[in-house]
Amino acid sequence: MTQTVVSRWLNKLPENEKNLPLLIVDSSIYTPRTAYNEVMRSSELGNKLQALIESGRFGTTAYEEEQVAKIRLRAWLQTQPEIVMFHTLSGKSFTPSQLLQEIESNTTIGQQWIRNEQQHMRLLVSAR
C-alpha cells in the first residue's frame, strides 16, 4: 500500500470518524487522522499503522478491539442528547446514558452494541 492509498482511505471515511479512536499499535490507540499523519511522515509507527490498514485489521487481540469499541461508543454516546434513542422488541427504551451503563455492565444489550461497533470498525478499516 502506498501513501496515496492511505490518503484515499482517509478521504473515504466520514468526517465524524476521522478523529475517533480506531487503530491499535503496541497497546496505544490511534485515530485515522493520526494514522494518516504518521504514514505520511514515514515513521516506524506509520509503517505499523499502514500494515494494519493494509491487512484490514484495527487491533492485535480481541480484548484490545473490544476496548477500542467501548471507547468509541462512550465518546459517541456522551455527545448525544439525553432522550430515548433505542427501543427493544420487548418494549424497553434506553437513553444514551442508559446504553452506556448497559455497555459498562456487560449486559446482553451492551455486548450487542459492542459487537455492532466492532463490525462497524472493520468496515471502516477495510474502506478502500
What does this entry look like structurally?
The structure is a single chain. This protein is mostly helical. It has one domain (3-126). The protein has six helices and four strands; from the N terminus they run H-E-E-H-H-H-E-E-H-H. A hairpin with a 2-residue loop joins strand 1 (23-25) and strand 2.
List keywords for this structure.
single chain, 128 residues, mainly alpha, two-stranded antiparallel ribbon, elongated
How would you summarize what this structure contains?
This protein has helices at about 5-10, 30-40, 45-55, 60-75, 95-105, 110-125, and strands at about 25, 30, 85, 95.
Produce the secondary structure layout:
Elements: H1 3-12, E1 23-25, E2 28-30, H2 32-41, H3 44-55, H4 62-77, E3 86-87, E4 93-94, H5 96-104, H6 108-126
Antiparallel strand pairs: 1-2, 3-4
Helix pairs in contact: 1-2, 2-3, 4-5, 4-6, 5-6
Largest sheet: 2 strands, antiparallel
Task: Give the neighbour order of strands across the main sheet.
Answer: 1-2
Helical/strand content category? mainly alpha
Number of strands: 4
Helix content: 55-70%
Series of H and E elements = HEEHHHEEHH
Q: Could you say how many structural domains there are in total?
A: 1
Strand content: 5-15%
